[in-house]
Specification:
By secondary structure, the chain is of the alpha/beta class. The protein is built from five helices and six strands; from the N terminus they run E-H-E-E-H-E-H-E-H-E-H. 43% of the residues are buried. Helix content is 28%, strand content 13%. The C terminus is likely disordered. Strand 4, helix 3 and strand 5 form a beta-alpha-beta unit.
């Protein structure tokens, strides 16, 4: 499952991150469940969270019955990366909102890409293609006890 930040599209849905629409289409073409963590434009190949409330990532998971351990969030800012970590989701970041790659990594992003187009070029080698490759992404206080998984 892939959860993509609606911020990658900008508030008026002009593609704020080059390649965002292509990334959405490719994830959908691969049969991955894609959820936009905010209302999306008509015709996008993704489900959209229409009333995310205070926790849009949890709402996105709930929309499709997804588990954090099987999801990857594509974030565009440090607060979004932190939200993914709080939700126990792996996170891939694209540069945006003035954040430096080091800030995004320090917040918990496993990968940082220049934009969605750059992520799309390495999609097969990215965390999006293998969400469980890096194990449990929850903060230690929330991680499952040894011998137990979600």
């Amino acid at each position: 499952m892939t959860v993509i930040s609606a911020a990658l599209f900008g508030t008026d849905w002009r593609h704020a991150s080059p390649g965002s629409a292509d990334l959405l289409r490719e994830c959908a073409a691969r049969g991955w469940t894609v959820v936009l963590a905010a209302p999306g434009p008509a015709g996008t190949p993704a489900l959209t969270v229409t009333a995310p409330g205070p926790d849009p990532l949890r709402a996105a998971l709930d929309l499709v019955g997804g588990a954090p351990s099987h999801a990857v969030f594509v974030a565009g800012s440090v607060p979004e990366v932190r939200a993914a970590r709080r939700a126990g989701m792996a996170c891939v970041a694209v540069l945006g909102a003035g954040a430096a790659p080091s800030d995004l990594r320090a917040a918990g992003a496993a990968e940082v890409h220049r934009d969605a187009a750059a992520l799309l070029r390495v999609l097969d080698d990215s965390l999006l293609a293998r969400p469980r490759a890096f194990g449990d992404h929850r903060p230690p206080a929330l991680a499952a006890p040894a011998g137990r998984s979600d």
